[in-house]
């Protein structure tokens, strides 16, 4: 099945043609770890987690890279004001390094609660300073930058297509609301690659241009190309990245390598409240921790996101989350009922994935992640009594490889505390049990035991515990 994605660079859906056959390199702009992640942030990461799983589901091998910004961002979306990391440190009476560590840990916990698979590579900006300096030096060598009292600045006049990606009308822009204001710039929309002469800034490193720190945009170009190459397949981010961050990333790519570094640029819309966009700087919205404190299962939020299209976004409310919780519970009830009934079937041949519904499911997934339509296929299949209960169950388990609702684990105990590798083996074993493939189920049980865990079957349920 051919995959089609909406490419912001061309403003149309395109067939995904990967650089290497059967392999996809994905880079996602990650969190700035200076405060709690609100669920608007997590909407983006959920969207790209679904992309990653859809690509795997239809047969691709993926390499997913995400940055962690632990230096160099400012307090507002227009690149002005106090450094975000330093603001967080002052707010909580911690060092900037402690703030970064605290909120990175919290972010990782949020990923687990939402069943978002951790990317293959997490790269911290502070651990890639040399790469950022090398990239800035390359841009400078190629004649795309100049120096001011504030630092090394990208000369956008040297990149004639600078405004093309975001369809910017530069002559109409209010530059004070877009990039950092520097009276030494040649052009108002030029931007800093490396910042110097900031004596009160805590995070600083030596560089050819003086002691300082990287500009906002250079970390993503430096780290994406380090781990995925000078040209890779997909770059993802939020719509808010289009006019500033990604426009400047593209400029850096041309300045350093003479080309756009990604073939496909995908952008998610916002998860919003009725009153508007959710943002940390605006002080509104819900954090993941808020919802946990209110007693919500975060997989209900994942279910809610699955009911939306990533380019259309989602208006969030507690009422909509409760409705999603009800939908998730109905799927879980179906699984509980079906597990009992399917084990009454004697022959493995009588239980199989329904290929008609799988084909329909893949068609929707492959059409630019049309998840609302894919979820409609899920429910149509679940309710189709012309398909045996066992077939519906294993088909739903197969679909859950993309949905990520942990439906295979319904009825289990103890799985929350085991490593992801063991969880996957447990899920695979449960699918073999449902299909009456006892040989493979026993093989996986023995393998799990060798890795330090025991699976105890108890009718349609099971328990997992550590050896000893």
Description:
The structure is a single chain. By secondary structure, this protein is α/β, with parallel strands linked by helices. Among the domains are: 4-268, HUPs (Rossmann fold), CATH 3.40.50.620; 411-468, no CATH class. It contains 14 helices and 17 strands. A five-stranded parallel beta sheet has the order 5-4-3-10-11, sandwiched between helices. Strand 6 and strand 7 form a beta hairpin. Helix 2 packs across helix 3 (96-113), helix 8 packs across helix 9 and helix 9 packs across helix 12. The protein is elongated and about 75 Å long.
Portion in beta strands: 15-25%
How many angstroms separate the termini? Answer: 47 Å
Low-confidence stretches: 73-80, 174-179
Task: Supply the helix-strand structural class.
Answer: alpha/beta
Mean pLDDT across all amino acids: 88
CATH-level-2 architecture of the domain at 4-268: 3-Layer(aba) Sandwich
Kindly state the number of beta strands. 17
CATH superfamily of the domain at 4-268: HUPs
Major beta sheet summary: 5 strands, parallel
Q: How much helix is in the residues? A: 40-55%
């Amino acid at each position: 099945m051919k995959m089609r994605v909406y490419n912001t660079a061309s403003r149309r859906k395109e067939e995904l043609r990967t650089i290497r056959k059967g392999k996809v390199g994905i880079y996602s702009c990650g969190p700035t770890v200076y405060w709690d992640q609100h669920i608007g942030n997590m909407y983006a990461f959920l969207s790209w987690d679904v992309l990653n799983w859809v690509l795997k589901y239809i047969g691709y091998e993926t390499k997913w890279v995400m940055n962690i910004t632990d230096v160099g961002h400012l307090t507002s979306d227009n690149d002005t004001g106090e450094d975000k990391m330093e603001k967080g440190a002052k707010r909580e009476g911690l060092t900037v390094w402690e703030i970064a560590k605290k909120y990175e840990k919290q972010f990782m916990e949020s990923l687990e609660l939402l069943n978002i698979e951790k990317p293959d590579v997490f790269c911290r900006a502070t651990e890639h300073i040399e790469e950022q300096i090398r990239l800035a030096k390359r841009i400078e060598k190629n004649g795309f930058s100049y120096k001011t009292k504030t630092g090394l600045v990208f000369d956008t006049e040297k990149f004639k297509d600078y405004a093309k990606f975001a369809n910017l009308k530069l002559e109409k822009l209010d530059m004070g609301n877009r990039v950092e204001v520097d009276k030494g710039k040649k052009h108002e929309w030029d931007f800093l690659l490396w910042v110097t002469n900031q004596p009160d800034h805590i995070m600083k490193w030596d560089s050819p241009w003086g002691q300082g720190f990287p500009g906002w945009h250079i970390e993503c170009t430096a780290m994406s190309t380090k781990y995925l190459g000078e040209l890779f397949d997909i770059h993802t981010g939020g719509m808010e990245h289009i006019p500033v961050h990604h426009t400047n990333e593209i400029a850096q790519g041309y300045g350093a390598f003479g080309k756009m570094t990604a073939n496909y640029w995908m952008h998610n819309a916002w998860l919003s409240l009725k009153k508007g966009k959710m943002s940390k700087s605006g002080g509104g919205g819900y954090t993941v921790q808020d919802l946990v404190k209110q007693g919500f299962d975060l997989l209900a939020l994942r279910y809610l996101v699955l009911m939306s299209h990533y380019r259309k976004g989602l208006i969030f409310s507690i009422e909509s989350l409760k409705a999603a919780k009800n939908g998730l519970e109905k799927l879980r009830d179906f699984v509980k009922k079906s597990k009992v009934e399917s084990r009454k079937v004697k022959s493995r041949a009588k239980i199989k994935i329904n290929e008609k519904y799988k084909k329909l499911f893949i068609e929707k997934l492959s059409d630019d992640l049309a998840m609302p339509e894919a979820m409609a296929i899920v429910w149509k299949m679940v309710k189709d009594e012309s398909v045996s209960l066992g077939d519906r169950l294993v088909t739903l388990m197969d679909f859950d490889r993309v949905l990520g609702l942990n439906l295979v684990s319904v009825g289990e105990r103890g799985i929350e505390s085991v490593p992801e590798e063991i969880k996957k083996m447990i899920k695979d074993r449960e699918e073999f049990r449902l299909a009456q493939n006892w040989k493979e189920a026993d093989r996986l049980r023995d393998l799990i035991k060798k890795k330090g865990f025991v699976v105890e079957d108890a009718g349609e349920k099971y328990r997992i515990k550590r050896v000893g």
